[in-house]
Specification:
This protein has helices at 29-37, 112-118; strands spanning 4-9, 12-15, 21-23, 41-42, 54-55, 58-63, 67-70, 75-76, 78-80, 87-90, 100-103, 109-111. By secondary structure, it is mainly beta.
Length: 119
């Protein structure tokens, strides 16, 4: 089992699946992130502007810094856009040979293998 996927609503943290309250009464986003970092929790991935990634209307979580999953534990092949931090989707329907990733937010295309080598 990975960390518990959580969502933020107002000043409270809830479990993303089932909606159970984890903790209420936070006063800032920083406080929420601090709490998440010290517990076995993970928050949805957001881009540089703070907008959450959505795939088919579902929030995306990043586990162990590398593995992306939807809220219902489906592993997805995504990559973070180096420009805007938006969600990059593999365009493998057309280009099976390459590992081309296209950002859904700004349209930037990049190679996922390159990004992995740089980090
Ligand atoms: Zn982008």
């Amino acid at each position: 089992m990975g960390p518990t996927k959580a969502i933020v609503k107002g000043h409270a943290l809830y479990e993303a699946v089932g909606g159970k309250l984890i903790r209420d009464g936070f006063t800032s986003q920083r406080e929420i992130e601090d709490y998440v970092n010290h517990h076995y929790l993970v928050l949805p991935v957001v881009d540089n502007a703070g907008r959450p990634w959505l795939l088919d209307g579902k929030l995306i979580y990043c586990l162990r810094g590398v593995q992306y999953e939807t809220v219902d534990d489906r592993r997805v092949h995504l990559a973070r856009c180096p420009d805007c931090g938006g969600m990059g989707i593999r365009s493998d329907e057309f280009t099976v040979e390459s590992d081309c990733i296209r950002c859904t937010a700004c349209g930037h295309e990049f190679d996922a293998r390159l990004e992995m080598m740089e980090t």
